[in-house]
Design brief:
The complex is a heterodimer of chains A (320) and B (252).
Chain A: H1 4-22, H2 30-35, H3 37-72, H4 84-98, H5 104-129, H6 136-158, H7 162-169, H8 186-204, H9 208-213, H10 218-240, H11 246-258, H12 262-286, H13 295-315
Helix pairs in contact in A: 1-3, 1-12, 3-8, 3-10, 3-11, 3-12, 4-5, 4-6, 4-10, 5-10, 8-10, 11-12, 12-13
Chain B: E1 2-11, E2 14-24, E3 28-33, H1 40-47, E4 55-60, E5 63-64, H2 70-73, E6 77-80, H3 92-98, H4 101-104, H5 110-122, H6 138-151, E7 156-159, H7 168-185, E8 188-192, H8 196-202, E9 205-210, E10 213-219, H9 220-223, H10 226-233, E11 238-242, E12 245-249
Parallel strand pairs in B: 3-8, 3-9, 6-7, 7-8
Antiparallel strand pairs in B: 1-2, 1-4, 4-5, 9-10, 11-12
Classes of the chains: A mainly alpha (320), B alpha/beta (252).
């Protein structure tokens, strides 16, 4: 019986996945898939990659959010509120300048390396100012991100790469086709990694002293966690650009409902973020059909509202 | 036995502790007392290997806590420190189960579950076990953390100001429970207490620090003397016998 809600949630996500597979500018239905080779080709080149990218990117952001929230001990951190994604973008831009025509894999490497460095910068800055307020931490992160973005923008504008930057950053999922989304599969490995290390991340969330007292190698967990976040954020940034707030709102809503047991929450966090991501993508595709609004824009609008609501809710509590 | 030798902690030009050396025998309750900035907390966190000393060594039952594997130390010694501006949303039972982490690495055996149940019982947390920490009062949360430490089942238990933020009633209960942990479970409890009379009422030994040095260290009997406490706290203290316990009076 305890599995039932999870089963229902999975069915919901599958329904959304199916909808995502069959909705689009090019009319494809199940029958056409078997009779029309052109439709099948379209389906495999565009629809399947797009949907898989949605699923994997959503999982990546959710998992990054969970890990960062435990490691930083703050509810409001995730790659887009800590500057991590912005650093990844800077990494890609610099690589494009230095190595024009770099392979996607190399781009991802650069993005992840910069994301990792960015996460470290964020942690060092936090350590220096010794903040106690839950709400100020993401503001510091967003400010850092804005600084990095400004640098990125400046470099892009002085090297005539502004247009590339703009297309790529708002690109979202419409440009995902076979051949450019595959690196996202690394997210699968990260999800498995998180499942295996879940207890350690939960314990890290109790704070450095408690974790050390329990014999957890705190620095090592911190390092592993940041690597996982950097990879997830780096890869996602390269393939689909920024996905705002997803890693923040989903883990928090799940935490409110079920607590912070990372392992038990993992299926819920992944399923809910996939559902939300696909839903936003579908909304974006349907409201101005046959044109589309990027899923990230829909998500940003929705996420911002939830983010503000969460901050207001937090202010009602004692710990701010 | 806890043995610390030539411990020093230096920040820049500022020596906050040491050099200090000393021993805390196994068994019983030992309180660290002293004025603010005396180095109590620094000493406790160094013994509990939450901070590295600038120099010196700490051994607990012969185990060098700063060099041995963290997991091995975690089966000998546990340390509880105030640090929570962030309250993880875990239930009391989940928290106490984490106490078994050094033994089970996350996969609870039947023996682990027994330890968790015992710890919950010992601190009367049975009714609260499925509540989230952020739904508890400060005193209840403190008890949950102590239960976690007891479930960890280490011979040595270090606590940094466990009475912080507790009212009179909860302070008395907490001290009584720590005393019982020493008497009934054979733990060696080392804690920092601000109130010298609490220390005297529930401890076997008192270590007094002042200006980063050990000013005096002895049995409660020997420590609860006017001249000793006046010197340690740099404020006139008189001792009165109240209900058979030596009590410090320093209010005016």
């Amino acid at each position: 019986m305890r599995r039932l809600p999870l089963l229902l949630a999975t069915l919901c996500v599958l329904a959304l996945v199916t909808a995502s597979l069959f909705i689009g500018g090019y009319d494809i239905d199940l029958r056409a898939l078997f009779t029309d080779p052109e439709a099948r080709r379209m389906f495999l080149i565009s629809r399947v990659p797009r949907t898989l990218a949605l699923v994997l990117a959503a999982a990546a952001m959710a998992v990054s959010g969970v890990i960062m929230q435990m490691l930083v001990q703050n509810r409001f951190v995730e790659p887009t509120t800590t500057g991590t994604s912005e650093w990844a973008a800077l990494g890609v831009l610099l690589l494009t300048l230095l190595v024009p025509g770099a392979s996607p894999l190399l781009k991802m490497g650069a993005a992840s390396a910069f994301a990792f460095a960015g996460a470290l910068v964020f942690l060092v800055v936090l350590g220096r100012i010794g903040l106690k307020s839950q709400v100020i931490v993401p503001i510091v992160g967003i400010m850092l991100g804005a600084l990095v973005s400004a640098a990125t923008l400046y470099i892009a504008s002085s090297t005539n790469l502004l247009q590339m930057l703009a297309t790529w950053r708002s690109g979202g999922f419409s440009s995902v086709v076979r051949g450019n989304y595959e690196p996202l599969w690394v997210v699968g490995a990260i999800v498995v990694g998180l499942y295996l290390l879940a207890d350690r991340f939960t314990i890290a969330g109790l704070g450095r002293s408690t974790a050390t007292s329990l014999g957890l190698p705190y620095r090592r967990i911190m390092f592993i966690g940041l690597i996982m976040v950097a990879l997830a954020a780096g890869v996602t940034t390269v393939v689909v650009g920024f996905i705002p707030f997803l890693g923040l709102i989903v883990p928090n809503l799940v935490s409110m409902a079920r607590g912070d047991d990372v392992r038990g929450n993992l299926p819920w966090v992944v399923l809910s973020s996939v559902a939300l991501m696909i839903a936003c993508d579908l909304v974006g595709r349907l409201i101005v059909f046959p044109l589309e609004i990027p899923a990230t824009v829909v998500l940003g609008a929705f996420g911002a509202v939830v983010f503000v609501a969460m901050i207001l809710r937090q202010r009602g509590k004692a710990h701010v | 036995m806890i043995e610390f030798t030539d411990i020093r902690k230096v920040y820049g030009d500022d020596t906050v502790l040491g050099p200090v050396s000393g021993r805390i025998p196994a068994g019983g309750v030992t309180s660290l007392v002293g004025p603010n900035g005396a180095g109590k907390s620094t000493l406790l966190t160094i013994i509990g290997r939450l901070a590295e000393p600038t120099s010196g060594t700490v051994t607990v039952d012969g185990l060098d806590v700063h060099r041995a594997k963290s997991q091995d130390v975690a089966r000998t010694l546990s340390v509880l420190r105030q640090e929570n501006h962030f309250t993880a949303r875990v239930t009391v039972r989940e928290l106490v189960s984490f106490g078994r982490f050094p033994h089970s690495r996350g996969r609870l055996t039947r023996e682990d579950v027994t330890h968790v149940d015992d710890a919950l019982d010992f601190l009367h947390l049975g009714d609260l076990q499925h509540r989230y920490l952020d739904q508890l009062s400060g005193g209840q949360r403190q008890r949950a953390y102590v239960a976690m430490v007891l479930a960890q089942d280490t011979r040595y238990v270090l606590l940094d100001e466990p009475l912080n933020n507790l009212d009179m009633k909860h302070s008395v209960r907490m001290m009584a429970q720590l005393r019982r942990a020493a008497d009934e479970l054979g733990k060696t409890v080392v804690l920092i207490v601000h109130d010298i009379n609490f220390a005297a009422a529930y401890s076997d030994r008192i270590i007094a620090l002042r200006d980063g040095r050990i000013a005096a260290s002895d049995t409660v009997e020997a420590m609860m003397r006017a001249e000793v406490l006046t010197e340690v706290f740099d404020t006139p203290v008189r001792i009165h016998e109240v209900d058979g316990t030596r009590t410090a009076v320093y209010y005016r």
